[in-house]
Amino acid sequence: MHDVNRFSIVDCQVLQLPKIHNRAGNITPIQGLTEIDFEIKRVYYLYDIPGGESRGAHAHYALHQLLIAASGSFEVELEDGTDKKTIFLNRPYNGLLIRPGIWRNIVNFSSGSICLVLASEKYTEHDYIRDYSEYKTIRKTANTL
Ligand code: T46
């Protein structure tokens, strides 16, 4: 059984991550099941994003993710089938938790920005819902049960 109908956008919050500072710069460590409530099975990052491009436009059945603006800034548009909200990320010590069943669109990347992602599962295309009308049907069905 997957978690696609378990979460709403209220469950997608910006976490304040640790920042260890000294005069030579900063370090932000993130450990699975410590700073975030899942084990990290995969790390990937989006970079060299051409101006005006967007990423995402899908939801996941089971994946939990933490998105970090490791450099620069971008906006994350979130939707749970009912409500929407937009989160602006521009600090490497903030991370946006995105839960299963949340449609996301990542837009307005600043030049040279890097979106670092920590994921709870290895990559599988079977975990994606890439069709928006299918997504709406899945969430609507859940809301009427
Ligand atoms: C998400 C946002 C933030 C892989 O082979 N392995 C991977 O781990 C990933 C993430 C992607 N891919 C392949 C699958 C596609 O052929 O890379 C290609 C582009 O993937 P996608 O169109 O899903 O990329 P984004 O940037 O739209 O979405 C990605 C993640 O897929 C998604 O989970 O939340 O970044």
Question: What is the element layout, followed by pairings?
Answer:
Blueprint: E1 14-16, E2 20-22, E3 25-27, E4 42-46, E5 55-60, E6 65-71, E7 74-79, E8 84-89, E9 94-98, E10 103-107, E11 114-119, E12 128-129, H1 132-143
Antiparallel strand pairs: 1-9, 2-3, 4-11, 5-10, 5-12, 6-9, 6-11, 7-8, 7-10
The protein binds dTDP-4-keto-6-deoxyglucose (T46).
DTDP-4-keto-6-deoxyglucose binds next to β4, β5, β6 and β10.
Description:
A 5-stranded antiparallel sheet has the order 1-9-6-11-4, with no helix packed on it. It is globular and about 55 Å long. The longest helix is centred in the C-terminal third of the chain and has 12 residues, at 132-143. With 145 residues, the protein is mainly β. It has one helix at residues 132-143; strands at 14-16, 20-22, 25-27, 42-46, 55-60, 65-71, 74-79, 84-89, 94-98, 103-107, 114-119, 128-129. The chain contains 1 helix and 12 strands; from the N terminus they run ββββββββββββα. DTDP-4-keto-6-deoxyglucose binds at residues 42, 44, 46, 55-56, 65, 67, 104, 106, 117, 123.
